[in-house]
Each structure stands twice: as C-alpha cells, then as structure tokens.
Amino acid sequence: MSKRIAVIDLGSNSARLAIFERTSRLGFFILREYKVKVRLGHGAYENGGMLQDAAIAEVLEALSEFKTYIKLYKVRKIIAGGTSALRDAPNKAVFLTRLKNELGIAMKVISGEEEASLGGIAASNLLPPLEDALCVDIGGGSTELARIKNGKMIAATSLNLGTVRLKELFYDKGDLKGATQFIKDKINALNDEFKSEQIVAIGGSLRAISKAIMERSNYAYKVLHGFCYELRKEGAFIKKIANAKPNDLKELCIKKERFDTITGGASIFDALCAFAGAKSVITSGVGVREGLFLRTILRPSMRFPKGFNPSLKSLSERFCVIDNAPIVRFSRLLFKELAPLHALGEYELGLLSAAARVFNVGRAIGYYSEAQNSAYIVRSGLNYGYTHEQICAIAAICELNSTEFSKADLGEFAGIILGKNLNITALKWLCYILALARNLGVYAGVSARFHLGVLIISGASELALLKANIKKLVEPIKFEIIFE
Q1: Closest Cα partner for 455 from 349, 465, 442, 439?
Q2: 3-class DSSP state for residue 31?
C-alpha cells in the first residue's frame, strides 16, 4: 500500500497537486495541496485547439516545481491527468512526450465523460449523502455534469463550455451576445436526466462564488466544502457577478485572480441552474483530484462501505492515544438506556457516536487544553461526509461534554449548530452521555442499565474516583443514579 499518493490535475486554466496520505486501507487525509495558474489552453481555442509553445513551456516549469514537493514528501506514486485543453489538442502527443522525457511524469488524457464521472465519484463519497443531485464542474475549457440519484451516479457528460474558452472566443472580442447564445446552445442540447433541484458546485469559479456568498453573510465556519445556500436567496447575486464589470467584482467579494474568468463561470452556472430547475447548492471542495485518488482505493464498487467515514477514521488513527472503542460502546448503550428521558433519535445518536470516537484527539497536542484542542482538530480535520451543522456539533460535544454550558458558550458557531435538527437541550444530553461514557468506558466489569427512573451502575461500588467524577456531572434533567 502506497502511504502517500500525489495526484496532478492539469486543466485549461490551472495545475493542481494534491498529496494524499493514507492512514489505513480507506482512511486518509490531504497532506498538502498546491495550485498554480498556468493556462495550458491559452491561445489554443483560437487556433484549432493547438497548444501554444509558450503555454507548454509554462506548464512544464510548473510541473517541475511540483516534482520538488513530491520529492520533499517522499511520494512514490504519482497519478496525473489532463483534462479539456489537453484532450482537445491535436498536438497533445508533443506535450505528453516532453512531460515524460523531461520530468518522468506519465500523464493520462481524461475524456470528458470520465472527468464528469470522477467529479461524481468524489462528490458522492466525500459530501454528506446525496440522494438526488446534479454535479456541475465548470472549468476553463469545459463543463462536466454528473447526475446522482438514490446516491448513485446514473449519467455523466461533458460540454465544450468553459471560462477560458468563453473569454478567448467571445469576451475578449466584446461579443457578449455571442457568448450568451453559445452558452444557451450548449445547455439546450442536454436532456432531462440532467435536471435536479440540488446542484453540487465543483470547480474554481463556483467555489469563488460560494466564498463570496460566505463572506457577504459573515458565515462563521470558514470551510467551503459542504457549504450550502438557497438559489432563491443568492440567485440574484450570481446574476450580478455574471453581468459585472471587472472594476465592480471586488465589491462583490471576488478575488482579483478571478476577475478575468468569473463572469463567464457565473453566466454558465446561472444558465445551468435555470435549466435544471435547481433550488439549492452544496459546494464541493473535491473534484477530479479526489476522484482519481478514490478510484485507486475503492475498486471495484467506487463506494465506501456503508457507515464508513474516511476523515473520522483518519483522525482517530492519527491522534487518539487510547482505544476509544469502549467509550463508543458505552455511549450507544447509555443513549439507548436513557431514551425514556431524552427522546432523541438516530440523527443525534450519529453525532454522539462520532464524538465518542474522537473526543480526545486534542490530547495528542497536550493534556491541559485537550477539550479545546479536540474541538479545533474536529472542525479542521473532519473534512468529509458530514454537513457543517454536524461537524460543528460534533466539535462542540468534544469540547463541552464535561462542563455545564449555555448557548453563549457555543460562540460564533451557535447559529450553525442549533436549528431544525438540534436544539440546546438535545446537545446537553449528548454532552452528558459522552461524559458518562468517558468515565465508565475505562473500567472493565462495569455496566449500566436504566430501570424505573434510576440509572444503575453495576460493578462500581468500590470505585471512589469513578463515583466522584460522575457525581460532578450536571444532568440535563434530574434523575437518580445508584452504584452497586
């Protein structure tokens, strides 16, 4: 098993390098990621797709730098893929030969449909469960679509419609009407299987739009992957970006590096959302790179096992200094036993089980700020498979499980954690149950049951420290505990 795998994704507008580190067969995290804006497609769309000498030289220089980092991190396996500009180029063999001879990198040309599928594989495995969604990946030369239904990808396609392509063919010539018609013609050729009320937004332009929406709304959790918004609220803003002059984009929270392509990306996205009948958008921080990586570890099903989360697995393997399995078991047992009091369901149990697995990851940094460190690590490292609400809730349970707290103690994340799925009372119950489980789970021979309104802890009558610690805990509602 290769512990570290480097994935190079060469698009029309940029080159990206991601170094994945595997902590087990399916557990992994991104060790480092690099991006450089090199336009392999620069000048190509006006010249029959032919890659220009200057663009080839620029890309080879960038990939040479990537090799420096690959060597630094002692990576032995490299997966490299090139997308739109490369697959369109009649002279692609010239570039691929130079890349192999000069840098020792064997790059595969990824077809449009394969590119769409890779984005779909990444999104369906690394976002919260997607029952019905359309993955939209807008790049420099093309736009890829992957339709997901009942959690499975059912269709994928690629359109020769991208931000750099639009810029060179239309925007640089002042032909706005031509650009609009070009977008319309490409999208109208799609069939109805690419319609969905939920859009998964992939690619630099769409992430830039999501980031702008986050900044405008002062969103507390500064993570793009999994960030959601409603088009009824933000659709007008996207149209505003599509129609903005370069000098106006800064006021719309768009970074300067995106000024030359963001209007085209927003225009394509607006038109696709209208075609699809979309109502909501979930931002994906994963795409082709993650798809290429996952394809190497998930064969043949291209799916993680049911209930498996690679980030949760990776965090526990890297940072948990003791085996938390007994605490997880006690957490689930106590949740079930105390159900007559808390009346919580599967959603809350999922949060509790996850927190029980990683509540002490901060101990690897230092004991005295363990709870705060654990919460920070969870918010920073629980990257995949959970909503922002779930991640922040799990972090809060890790931080507050042994303390008495109020809504104010949730700080800037209160508005994300508390809502239709979780209230403050439920959160207090989850914290209390985890605190109980933390104390009980380290003792062999201790058990617990709830009977006639009393929590009976057996095998603990002589355990003075255990009894003292449990008596310090503040129950969400008062009930009797006896030790026998």
Answers
A1: 439
A2: strand
Q: CA–CA distance from 322 to each of 441, 442, 467 (Å)?
A: 11, 10, 22
Answering whether pTM is above 0.85, one says yes
| Residues in contact with 55: Cβ distance below 8 Å, sequence separation at least 6, in sequence order | 38, 39, 40, 41, 42, 43, 44
DSSP 338: T
Three-point CA angle 410, 229, 14, nearest 5°: 105
* Residue of 35, 33, 393 whose CA lies nearest to 221: 393
5: β partners: 20, 77
Based on C-alpha coordinates, what's the Rg of the chain? 25
Segment 66-125, tens digit of pLDDT: 999 999 999 999 999 999 889 999 999 999 999 999 999 999 999 999 999 999 999 999
> What does the alpha-carbon distance between residue 478 and residue 380 come to, in Å, rounded to a whole number?
35
Instruction: Write down the residue that tokens 């599509």 correspond to.
Output: 242
Query: How many other CB atoms are found less than 10 A from the CB of residue 386?
Result: 22
* Rounded CA separation 378/396 (Å): 9
Rounded distance between C-alpha atoms, residue 136 and residue 138, angstroms: 6
**Tokens 């000048």 -> residue:** 43
Residue that has been written with the tokens 């977008």 in this structure: 183
Q: Give per-residue pLDDT as tens, 385-424.
A: 999 999 999 999 999 998 999 999 999 999 999 999 999 9
